[in-house]
Amino acid sequence: MIKLSTEDTVQITIREAKDILAKQSVEDFVKFLETRTIELEKTDQMLESVILWHFFEDTMEKFEEEDYLAYAYSKLISRYLLLADLSKAKEIYEKSIKKDLSSFHLDTVRTIYERRTETRTDKEIVEIGKKDIFGDFTTTVTSPNVLFENNAQVRNFILNDLPEGSYSITIFNHKLENTEELRMTTETLEEYEVISVKEIVRIE
Amino acid sequence: MVERKPIWGSSRYFIEIEPDTNLFSTAMSGLVSFYDTRDLINEKECTNLQELVRTVYDFWVTILAPHETRVARWIEEYFENMGIKSDYSLLLRLIRSEEMIIEQIEEIILETLKIPTDHLSDLLEIDENTAIIGRLIKLQQLPEDELVINELVQRVLDRHQAVVPARIKGVHQFNLGDEKKSVEIEKNINVGDTIGSFSITSTIINRYDEPIKDIDVVDQIPYSYNVLMVECDNKEAKKEQSKGEDSLLIRWKLSELGPKERVNITYYVKRRINRIILEIAENEITVLKTFENINPADLEYRAYTKYVNSHEDQIKELYIADTIPPEFNILRTIPEAIAPQGIIERAKMKGITVRWKHTNVKPKELIEKSYQLDYFPYLYRGRKLVKDKDNRDIMKCLKIIQPSARGSGYKIVYVIRALEQLDEMISFTDRIPVNHVLMNTEPAEAQIMEETIDENQKSLTWVTNPPERNQDITVILTVSGDTQPLFETFTVQIGEKTETEILEKETNVERELLAYSFDLPF
After folding, report:
1. B21, B47, B51, B58: best to mutate for the A interface, most A CBs within 10 A
2. What percent of chain B clears pLDDT 70, i.e. is strictly above it?
3. Which of B242, B262, B224 is nearest to B351 (CA)?
4. Which of A118, B128, B140, B500 is 20 to 30 A from B258, alpha carbon to alpha carbon?
5. pTM for the predicted model, two decimal places
6. How far is B402 from B380, CA to CA, in rounded Å?
7. Which CATH number, 1.10.287, 1.25.10, 1.25.40, 3.90.660, labels domain A6-117?
8. Which of B195, B489, B513 sits opposite A191 (nearest CB)?
9. Which uninterrupted H or E stretch holds B306?
10. pLDDT, tens digit (0-9, with 9 covering 90-100), for B449-477
11. pLDDT tens digits for B350-373?
């Protein structure tokens, strides 16, 4: 029996993946690569897995599939973190920011990266709305005049420095130059069956 | 008890899972949060078990190399600590993204047929105003894999779950001159006077300048609703009723209606328990959808179920799944629901379902269940936006009714927020049952006047100076009474100015997570 070299394994996988992409769906292609990378990582072949994720990144870039591209970047950042290759992780992290990509998993991985490397994202709270008795978010809390390194710090600020309540926080990310909204509750909520009546009336 | 648990192999990263239900199934939803030491990195609302498990796994493999069996064990242990019995092999299969189960089920189900059920009505003692909706699902063969059977059962239950609509359908037919007209109208199901009651207003209007004749209106009330009373303000209108596929059909016939004339019909309804019975055999599943009334019994409510195996053969597996209307809470079941035979699923924001499983049910075997129910903690919230004659928003008003958790009674909270500078006195007029007693007012100096209107109700009037612009004024009333409060909206008056027009009105009932707490001695 001829034992295949690692290089061969990766090349064969890439060929097979290309074949799946040509004949089947993008979902099948993703599934196939996920399965193969997991197999490689289970046997400590992390570098080979990274090569496959780079191939995945290139392919998704051509297809302009933003969700999958975000997925590829999240995988690459986390894989480089696992390999303790911080310069490579930084490269991918910055690339993902330049491309303005966002997904739940990518946001999680970016936050992990930022906290490990103490990278500042310069997040500024521009508005804090607190839920009032009418159920509307009203701006009664002044936003702090500081920049936060990441969302975890923003959450900590809400948790530790503001009175209990339900908040809507508008954050401006100076690095991405975009805004995002974070919803957070720091009070104990109870479940009710709510009978709600809303009226708009004129009075004369 | 929700705990923050470190992922195995790391002392820095933690995961917290807050499931919305205590029942482990593929439909299990919940919140997954990730922590870096004590700091929350991210959190995700997951809509089913697959998403929940994959979210945990994806986070895990961000920190460590993939290890599916360890993640499955970790989740199993996590649920075990919460008192939820999970299934390691299902968790592992979900982590491995095996869509095989779903594909297998699609292959197993061959076809679904309608079946007659008239002969079962007496046997199962169902209400004469409801019907049994019967389906026969033909299977290739019942799977041997227990996981696939469970998933199949879940799938069939989900697919046949009665959807309780927020509107009903009505078909209006009439003759306009020689022309026959037919219109389909949707009618809102409105909040009733008390908890658990609803009303539907069906209006027949002649919008033409000539009479319409041979009017035939059919309102379709879904069996999920029990019609308690019907009112019609036209004595000429003749009412008939019959049973449709999934609704009670109430027909109104009227020979003529003059130009611009209208007839108002009001249905007073309450929700029923939606029941699905699955009779599982080797090559088929019989699905019976029935509806059960909830009746008052002393200070609580009761519902009773009777099932009899009408087949000539033994039933391999029988499931009875009851969805309790969301306004109710289960106090007790008879027999007691003890897993795995009886499971009460309390899903956050969704309500309660009770699922019973019986095996090898013999022909003519009788199975009975009964439920003792009480109301789920509820709140009435009436919001009013007040506009002036120039259409400017001048005031926001709020009324909350919160029943006492301990005694028989409730609190009424009124809030006024001025959106403009207001100079005149403001008054709120509201109603409560005549036998309810106002026990306490906070602040004590608030001006509240009581006056008996008739033998059933009395009015409450709160008079106050207006708050400053963008400021609130609040008053909290403590009312004692052993019957339900009235879910009425108040009327507002500013000085001599009164409400002249309702520009918009919207009512709905749904579960919400709220932090309302008006801590007053009761």
Report:
1. B58
2. 97
3. B224
4. B500
5. 0.76
6. 7
7. 1.25.40
8. B513
9. strand B300-308
10. 999 999 989 999 999 999 999 999 999 99
11. 778 999 999 999 999 999 999 999
